[in-house]
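for ur thesis appendix - Nucleoid-associated protein Cvib_1034. copy paste whatever u need, i formatted it the way the template wanted (i think)
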Amino acid sequence: MEMPNLGDMMKQIQQAGAKMQDVQKQLEKTVTHGEAGGGMVKVSVNGRQRLLSLAIDPDIMDDREMVQDLVLAAVNSAIEESGRVSQEEIAKVAGGMINPADILKNMGK
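the 3d part is after this line
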């Protein structure tokens, strides 16, 4: 059985690291959207799961509890979509070497 070439392995690791940095930069620019209440609350989140925008229909501002519930629902929807997109992009680069969920846990640190 032939021993793996350590130099080749290090080169592959460096290439994967560079690709991951590119993916993280791309994810900062990737925007997903969520909405609730038939569009009364709309949010945008980037691929690093940072809230970018929040729009609330002024007609619902009198009902504080409803606004709070709709904001939570819209934000959670956008974050879920962002997480799905992020995992897909990371999986493309990782090629089975690493678990995308592990990377996502550490992205905000």
